[in-house]
Amino acid sequence: MTTHEEFESLAALDAVGAATADEIATLRAHVDGCPSCAAAQAELAEAATLLARDLEPVQPPADVRSRVLAAVGQHVDEVALEDDDNVVRPFFNRWWWSAAAMLFLALWGWRELAVRAQREHIVTAEAEAKSLSEENARLQERNEKLSAEIASMAAAGTKTIALTGQTVAPSASARVFLEPEQRRAVVFFSDMPANAKDRSYQLWIIRADQPKPQSAGTFDVTQTGKASITVENLPVATEIKGLAVTLEPKGGVEQPTNTNFYVSGGV
Amino acid sequence: MTMNQTEQSTGLLAAVARGDAGAFEALYDRYSSMLYALLLRILGNAEDAQEVLQEAFVKVWTNARMFDAERGSEIAWLISITRSRGIDKLRSRKIRNERENDAGREVSIHVGFTDKTTGADHAIRSEEGTAVRGALAALPEAQRVALELAYFEGFSQSEIAERLGEPLGTIKTRMQLGMKKLRESLRAFQ
User: Fold this and answer.
1) Residue among B6, B29, B40 whose CB faces A58 most closely
2) Mutate which of A32, A43, A54 to test chain B, going by most B C-beta atoms within 10 A?
3) What is the three-class DSSP state of B78?
4) Hey, are the CB atoms on A20 and B166 less than 8 Å from each other?
5) Cα–Cα dist B184/A209, whole Å
6) Mean per-residue pLDDT, B130-151
7) Residues of A with CB below 8 A from B86's CB?
8) Cα–Cα distance between A243 and A261 in angstroms, integer?
9) Confidence (pTM)
10) Which residue among A230, B30, B70, B135 is least packed, with the fewest CB closer than 10 Å?
């Protein structure tokens, strides 16, 4: 089950446009019924604008302003023309003006209603198109992910590596399907202890060419003790010395804060 | 313009939603420079930036009623619409490929972003700019780069991982930690 903290992590990615279609769909479904996550999402979206607000303002050319105003119907000439039409002509009596005013108001009201309906129609159509497009992207992404996972496990060059439980979780284990050619790995964990809500498991790559381990992502384990994670863009196989999992603060850290490995193993 | 002023709603969008053309002009005059700078950063050329700026303001005019002050500030809503249009344009015209081929120009943009401005530049920067700069400068380089690649270049998590030669999980963690810090900075400003 996804926690509020995890939804906030998704909202952080969404705020800079980096969430996947699947993550966006998951997030939207949740925030609709969760005011606190909706507030966090709004705050993160606001925070992301700091990136734009850091830029030095640049004045656009003056003709852009004119084009914008023209595009939204600000025609100064039309206003001037309307003013000319307002000149009182003596041979028109009050009845004529009343009738003309009534007709004008009726036409104006009809036009406003039509414009409003058209605007609403456009907004609705845009929202529907966006929703369908997102759903399509989400399904396509899921399909690609499943296909990639199956391909990883079935590929001729796939190496299978066993990670074994360590002192803090002796019965835990993991199986890694490492596809060197695609630099991708799918890891299935079993009999892991469920993590607390404010913590995440983090998978680390221990590299032969670097002194510090490298994060390969975070994941959570529920009461079932099972979890899986797909790692993309791995270092080349010869650079991977081993893999290990630690328990870290929610959302992960840049470097491990402890050496209590839950599972680990050499490659 | 101070940070507090930008956080406050000017009420201009509400007036635009009622069809107030004067308010729309005031909105343009107030925010077009910031939004144009954003589009120049995303698209890298003035012609495209001007075209998208026009599209974005037309969208603001037609959709102003959808702005909800309870869910975010006026400026955040405007930036969101403009950025979204800019990224759409970037993708549709495959400007990204052109930019990658234009190595010299890429370097100059990058330097412009990482290099801090001179004392004279600082003097003309707005109060808000200085405060925001502090927030971004406080981010570790790796986190800032990952966030900028997503926000300005429209790259997906996987593309960023590929581009930086890092595992996807590392990139996700970096972006999440970076956003957490920006959020804390935003709270400090308010």
Assistant:
1) B40
2) A54
3) helix
4) no
5) 35
6) 85
7) none
8) 10
9) 0.61
10) B70
